[in-house]
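Hi U.,

Before I forget, here's the chain from the pilot set. I'm dumping it here mostly so it's searchable later in email.
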Amino acid sequence: MKRSVIALIDCNNFFVSCERIFRPDLEGRPVVVLSSNDGCAVARSNEAKALGIAMAAPAYKYKQLFKDEGVVQFSANFELYGDISQRIISQLISITPHIEVYSVDESFLDLSELDIPDYSAWGRAIRQNILKNIGVPVSIGIAPTKTLAKLAADRAKKDEAMAGALDLARAEQDVINYQLAAVPVRDIWGVGWRLAPKLQAEGVHTAYDLAHFSIKRASQLMGVHGRQMITELNGIACHPLERPHKPQQMIGRGRQFGEDTNQPGVIEAAVASLTARAAAALRRDGQLARTATVVLRTNRHNPGYQSYTKSVSFITPTADTGTLMAALTRATEEVFNPRASYHKADVILHDLMPTTGFQTDLFGNVSAGQNDRETARMAAIDHLNDKFGKGHIIYAAERLSDAWRPRHRLGSPRYTSAWAELPEIHAL
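Structure:
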């Protein structure tokens, strides 16, 4: 039986790297990407990190630093980032179909069945191909387990001598121990800031310490998660690649508003738009919802914070945007308080079932005809939007108002997904 070999491809400062593809003049300059409403830093270039700008740092607190140091700021351009991510994934799938897309900027590959004589050289070649073909720098960690692969990718990112790739799958044990000893326990995948203090109180300060820690004591502190973490650090895989398209248990979409509002038309437009996005994701996942929930929140940083929630159940499970939208806008009207000033809305679809599992009932309450009509209608709309572009066909309720939409004053063009925003070339 072949030993497991996992590679993690981790995009470096991904959002910043996407912006730099079309702005090569920003190479070497401090760059930050800001969250909704340009509130907090969600990505930082290495130069910005060196200035002490922390992850999730409120932008207003660094306003003077940004000015003094010439920090370039961008509003998050998620449509661009998602498209670049898909291009990278397509390139990785050409290497092996055994891939788990862990996040927008990280993917695990199973290399166990591939004939690769030198993993380090392979990793550097893949890194160079992605940089050449797409323009995003990546770091690659190769190891017998996911936890070690994550650790190796992080080390490859921080040590320029590794040229972006570190192989711990065929490394000698003393090399593995050296790399483990260089990683603080808080940086281990699955530990983080919550568990790190508990482990440090036990004398565990590095990944090497944790690899040699008592499994029994780790189980007492962290449950089965702790036992698996130690096992993986010692080269025995506990976490196989997740199968692609694993059905979600819940699908939600939420958005903080551009400014607080108590206007019912603005709130309705926000709920309608979020419902449309959630329903589209539900259909892509091949599922139907039996329950939908809308949540309206005031600003938790202001006195008198309130949260208003209303759930709606469907006798016939549905993924129809219109059905969900009508139900949730009615629910919004029921919980709407005109004296409240709303800061954020969330739409959640839950109690899900696969479309293949749709069944009628003995009493005729569940309508197969309704399901067939909704399925055909949504298939037609999705086809047209896929063919002519996202948002080509929308529901009128989504256009009641745009006042709720987050501020993106520093947004870059959607270079790869909007014809009107393609980069221009000027011949002199």
